[in-house]
Write a structure and sequence with these properties.
Blueprint lengths: L2 H16 L11 H24 L3 E3 L8 E2 L2 E2 H24 L6 H21 L4 H20 L4 H10 L1 H11 L9 E3 L8 E2 L2 E2 L1 H28 L1
Antiparallel strand pairs: 1-4, 2-3, 5-6
Helix pairs in contact: 1-3, 2-3, 2-8, 3-6, 3-8, 4-5, 4-6, 5-8, 6-8
């Protein structure tokens, strides 16, 4: 079994088992998660395919199963379903166990720093495909959520911040923190070169732009279902 696949299973397994926790009962919400993740993962996979073909990033076959869907390894495709599953699970856990958490200050400070830094990075790196696209999309997602005053957004920020520790571990392994060569490599021509350990800074913005729309759609489907059930 490939290291990349082992990593995805290691992420998914504990979250899946804990999703049956009675207080969280995340397994009951699959009807809302599935359409949300497919709606967002599909364009991200197209984006991923395009950047892979054009050498913005790529994959070390030494750490792969060798099964490809287009130019993407199977493990990379699974990434777009496993990581959102884990993040939405964290989102629900925090709601269940910290229902009264005060998140106004966290949301305001995070959003301000995130939007300003993302905008500056995008404007200063117009020729870097990854920097420009990831930062621009993340900033647009944040501004859209802020302007919409969506009830889910503060909780989503809380979940995103909490998820940064496992994010550092998973992305660290993917980018070579624990292996002689990275599982996923990035062209130095399309990133700033600023890294968190071995992780390109752009990955933080990329993950934000993946996860926020999924949580937003998940909340929308869940809210609509419960509203129609009354």
């Amino acid at each position: 079994m490939s290291l990349y696949l082992i990593l995805m299973l290691a992420c998914f397994g504990p979250c899946f088992l804990l999703s049956f926790d009675k207080k969280v009962a995340f397994f009951k919400n699959m009807r809302f998660f599935v359409p949300a993740v497919f709606a967002v993962a599909t364009p991200f996979l197209i984006w991923d395919q395009y950047f892979t073909i054009n050498g913005v990033w790529g994959f070390n076959e030494s750490y792969l199963q060798g099964i490809f869907i287009g130019s993407l390894p199977l493990e990379e495709v699974l990434f777009f379903f496993v990581i959102p599953y884990c993040c939405v699970f964290i989102y629900e856990v925090l709601i269940a166990y910290f229902p009264n958490a005060s998140l106004n200050n966290l949301t305001k400070i995070f959003s301000l720093i995130f939007v300003l830094s993302g905008t500056l990075l995008a404007l200063m790196n117009l020729e870097n495909w990854y920097t420009l696209s990831a930062c621009s999309l993340a900033v647009m997602c944040a501004i859209f959520a802020i302007r919409g005053k969506y009830i889910w957004y503060p909780r989503a920020i809380f979940a995103f911040v909490v998820a940064q520790l496992p994010f550092l571990i998973v992305n660290g392994v993917l980018t070579g923190a624990a292996t002689p060569e990275p599982i996923v490599w990035y062209s130095e021509f399309h990133i700033t070169g600023v890294r968190i350990l071995t992780i390109p800074l752009e990955d933080v913005f990329y993950n934000f732009s993946l996860l926020m729309p999924i949580i937003g759609l998940y909340h929308y489907f869940k809210f609509r279902f419960h509203k129609n059930s009354r």
